[in-house]
Amino acid sequence: MNISFHGAAGTVTGTKHLLTLDDGRKILLDCGLFQGLGSQTANLNQSFGFEPAEIGAVLLSHAHIDHSGLLPKLVADGFNGPIFCTAPTRELSSILLMDSAQIQNQTHEGPDDQCIYTPEDVVKTIQQIKTIEFDEWFEPMPDVKVVFTRTGHLSGAAAISLDLPAAHGRTTLAFSGDVGRHSHPLWQQATAFPQADYLVLESTYGDRDHDLRSSNVDILASYIQHTCNEKKGKLIIPAFSVGRTQEILYLLHQLEAENRLPELQYFVDSPLGIAATHVLASQLEEFKENLQQSIGSGSDPFQFKGLKYVESTEDSIRLKEYQEPCVIIASSGTADAGRVRHHIRETLGDPKNTILFSGYCGPQTLGGRLLSDDRIVSIAGEDIAVKAEIHQLLGLSAHGDSNDLCQFIACQDPSLVRGIFIVHGERNARERLAARLKAKNFYPVTLPEMHECITLNRHVQTDQLSLAPAS
Known about the structure:
- By secondary structure, the protein is an alpha/beta fold.
- The protein has two domains: 2-208 and 398-464, Ribonuclease Z/Hydroxyacylglutathione hydrolase-like (Metallo-beta-lactamase, Chain A), CATH 3.60.15.10; 216-396, Rossmann fold.
- The chain has 14 helices and 22 strands.
């Protein structure tokens, strides 16, 4: 039995981990799109590093495009098996993948610039998805048992625990997917998952701890006050459409409830973000209990005075003519694509404006360059001097920090874990988390490289093997 890593190995994007069982059957854990890796990105999205037609089943942890975004290409290239995920993940994936296909169709320039996949591929992909409840064991293929447990990262987001047939009994492996903040205001918290022989663990913020001393509501209010009321400028907030946009709307909703929301126009300029907000508002069971009660009594956590949704491209472009102080929330979160780029282009050269990033930005993205204090950046072929203020709200990340990741695996007995594979992180994050896990007696801890294949159970004795879960 082996596991190979075909994405999110040394980066935070393109998650794909392939399990090959002793009898040759193959299971793919996630199938994400690579994003924000500069000139490498297109080539990485063209080649999987394995044959799609050989995959027996896909297990999908959650809907974010860096975990789901190449599923339609997998199907177009020959995969015809089932894709298993939770019902909220299926619903969100439907709109995310269709949006991805439509963007490709709108932006490709000719026969030498082909779309990775089409809307028709997305329709076929969604038809292959089968939904599973949390905490219910199922068999994606004969003699393979799987259970989804919550990670608190996004509506429907799951850790995936597998119980697999091996040459001398059973082997268990758990894949974290993405782990959320314990203190996230919207989603139910992560839950314990079954003891595993092997763990595949994300590490996005494995090298840092989120600042819990300050309130995100207060911090956001201070940026609005400083930029819009004091400087009379525009506050541009790059935010991913699914998850981050809704958390920002919820914080603004809280400010209104506390009578602290300035009387301004608040624009959400993201058709996908608008669609996702409506979908998420209907997934009541995914929210924390206090929010479930609030929504059940008729409150809308994503609504407040002054909120305007911008649907059309024409209206988005027209926003540059709006000269009053305002807040514009637009995707993408790293500013590497989407409508937020033209808002940044229009506002970056004026010191009265502020660009407030709402989470992690890879070093090669526009957001990463701005946060690294680059004083001149190129947007759409135009070099622009950076005069606006550049800030980051790390407390809004949907990813847990080092403490959250350690708390997530606290349900595991280190003496029973035969290996941890650290993925979905930059080098420093992976190395720092690995050192912390070793100090907690998890060993060995491996940092796999792109396309690396690792054999499992290489030195396992029969009396060390885990038992299968009760049926």
